[in-house]
Amino acid sequence: MNEKEFLNQLSDIMNKFYGEIYTPMVNLVNEYIESNETISLYDLSYQENFKKLDDMALLTAWVIDRLDGRVACIGDKSYKGSLLKKVRKALGYTL
Length: 95
Known about the structure:
Elements: H1 3-35, H2 41-44, H3 48-67, H4 83-91
Helix pairs in contact: 3-4
């Protein structure tokens, strides 16, 4: 696959992401917040859907690391300075 093909496919995926996931998710969260005066993440409990949000953040960091030439796996030496490591730490993961 050449660069042009990669960028075209990536653009198609991102357009699908924004149309089918990003915008509806933003609208859903805003609607929920507007309908509920007191909101706490703890009231919702940490369900599988929130784990999937973590996975989306981790995937984004992994893609950026891979395109930056990093392997971005915990056992690899490039993991130490990776975005993936920083995002995992921000999300509360220990490794």
